[in-house]
């Protein structure tokens, strides 16, 4: 089958034809074959025709349902070995740290911040440099299928606003956070807010900018971003909580990533009882709060976080790179906490949520190896289906986007990726020898033709990369194409 190019002047409507795969539940993927998804001019899914026997029948059915004339529609058809998958959701990523991916040596969190991270972030007050870094970051993450990213920018307001502008123009759904660091004795003198008052003022400035460029926060939303408890004062956190309540905004921060960090929090907030209590007593544990890492949470902290309906971003690449530890996803699920995935660049070494999903399975296996009881050990391992849920619907729920994105349903927006795997022919070569049918390198995944769909997905998870991400759409707009 031939994949139709989108015309440079897109038509009003689109119909995607082929196989659609998405999470039905945490445990189960749904495979919808011979299907058509109709997308309206606003990027919303208007109709779906499922299991029609052939793509022609699916196309006819969806045109009948919508009443659209064929001439008004751009058709996008899966090629051999291709399928549509929901766009990935990165619930925790530092756009400002993108140039440092892979550069962490043997450091752990607190020395890594001092040595690698604060100097880079502070240098992005140079707007030309910020433009270069942020453009590369947004383009790179889009190319890996990340349709929604929850970004930390820096303390600098103009650079943060620039990141929001770029997300809007490049078409990535994003939460953009100006980083609050108002605790003078902890934050480096060259990289911090001048005062608590200034910190809150700057947070509001960034919110006002985003409101101006995207008044309904349709694509880009501000997110309140106290860096982590050690870098913020009590007054600063209380002030952010007041803004949160007034504006009903999301919040992101870090929690319990590293033992030295936890000790620092306990020293700075004596009598608080726990790291989670520090945020809670300053009004920052809300249903719209995403807490990154949560590696060393206690039972009581998990119970508190669950009772506040706050969410957790699991960042396995980062937790391994900075030797922070292993977050217990299934334990958090059992506590009733919603969990998504974060790349946490550049604590994490990769811009890819597929890589984060892969590492989530491996981290769960490292946890399993510490369990004596065989049944419990098996249960603790995360499955392919579960980590792909974390990467899509789980992330959407963490960000309050569960009704908008994360799967293929009528009424949701089309945030999706077209995945192509390499099809091995009878001579052992792939079409075009080393290239797929489109003349583009199909990457590491060789499909021999006898694999079930479940096996193809497992091969994609464990060996896939951005070469398999052929097209990416956000709100129906084509935002990345490998051609
Ligand atoms: O992984 C992390 N990355 C950061 O930039 C950071 N700041 C505080 N705590 C952090 N953890
Ligand atoms: Zn982080």
Radius of gyration: 22 Å
Structural class: alpha/beta
How many domains make up the coordinates? 2
Ligand catalogue: xanthine, zinc ion
Counting H and I runs of at least 4 residues, what is the number of helices?
Answer: 15
Walk across the major sheet and give the strand order. 3-2-1-4
Describe the sheet with the most strands. 4 strands, mixed
Terminal CA distance: 17 Å
> How does the overall form come out from the CA principal axes?
globular
> Architecture of the largest domain, according to CATH?
Alpha-Beta Barrel
Strand content: 15-25%
- Mean of residue pLDDT values: 95
CATH topology of the largest domain: TIM Barrel
Point out poorly predicted stretches.
1-7
Catalytic activity: guanine + H2O + H(+) = xanthine + NH4(+)
Family: Belongs to the metallo-dependent hydrolases superfamily. ATZ/TRZ family.
GO molecular function, one term: guanine deaminase activity
EC number: 3.5.4.3
What is the compact description of this entry?
Pathway: Purine metabolism; guanine degradation; xanthine from guanine: step 1/1. By secondary structure, the chain is an alpha/beta fold.
């Amino acid at each position: 089958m031939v994949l139709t190019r989108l015309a440079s002047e897109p038509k009003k409507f689109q119909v995607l034809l082929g196989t659609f795969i998405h999470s039905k539940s945490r445990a189960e993927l749904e495979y919808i074959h011979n299907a058509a998804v109709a997308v309206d001019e606003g990027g919303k899914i208007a109709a779906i025709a499922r299991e029609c026997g052939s793509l022609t029948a699916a196309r006819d059915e969806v045109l009948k349902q919508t009443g659209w004339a064929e001439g008004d529609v751009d058709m996008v058809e899966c090629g051999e070995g291709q399928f549509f998958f929901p766009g990935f959701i990165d619930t925790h990523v530092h756009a400002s740290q993108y140039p440092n991916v892979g550069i962490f040596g043997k450091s752990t969190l607190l020395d890594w911040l001092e040595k690698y991270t604060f100097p880079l972030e502070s240098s992005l007050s140079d707007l030309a440099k910020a433009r270069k870094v942020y453009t590369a970051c947004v383009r790179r993450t889009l190319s890996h299928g990340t349709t929604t990213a929850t970004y930390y920018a820096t303390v600098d307001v103009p650079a943060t606003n620039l990141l929001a502008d770029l997300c809007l123009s490049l078409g990535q759904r994003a939460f953009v956070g100006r980083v609050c660091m108002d605790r003078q004795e902890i934050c480096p003198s060259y990289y911090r807010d001048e005062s608590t008052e200034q910190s809150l003022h700057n947070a509001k400035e960034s919110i006002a900018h985003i409101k101006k460029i995207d008044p309904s926060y349709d694509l880009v939303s501000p997110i309140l971003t106290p860096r982590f408890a050690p870098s913020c004062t009590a007054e600063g956190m209380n002030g952010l909580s007041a803004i949160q309540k007034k504006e009903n905004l999301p919040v992101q921060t870090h929690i319990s990533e590293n033992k030295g960090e936890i000790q620092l929090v306990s020293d700075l907030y004596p009598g608080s009882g726990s790291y989670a209590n520090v945020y809670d007593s300053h009004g920052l544990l809300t249903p719209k709060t995403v807490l990154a890492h949560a590696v060393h949470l206690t039972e009581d902290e998990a119970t508190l976080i669950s009772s506040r309906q706050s969410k957790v971003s699991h960042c396995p690449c980062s937790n391994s790179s900075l030797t922070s530890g292993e977050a217990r996803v299934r334990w958090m699920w059992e506590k009733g906490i919603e969990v998504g995935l974060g790349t946490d660049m550049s604590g994490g070494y990769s811009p890819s949520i597929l890589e984060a999903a892969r590492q989530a399975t491996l981290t769960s296996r490292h946890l399993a190896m510490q369990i004596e009881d065989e049944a419990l050990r098996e249960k603790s391992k995360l499955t392919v289906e579960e980590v792909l849920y974390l990467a899509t619907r789980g992330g959407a729920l963490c960000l309050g986007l569960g009704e908008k994105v994360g799967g293929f349903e009528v009424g949701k927006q089309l945030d999706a990726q077209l995945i192509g795997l390499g099809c091995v022919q009878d001579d052992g070569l792939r079409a075009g020898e080393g290239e797929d049918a489109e003349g583009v390198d199909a990457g590491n995944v060789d499909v021999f033709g006898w694999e079930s769909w479940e096996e193809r997905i497992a091969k994609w998870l464990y060996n896939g990369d951005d070469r398999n991400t052929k097209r990416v759409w956000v709100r129906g707009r084509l935002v990345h194409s490998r051609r």
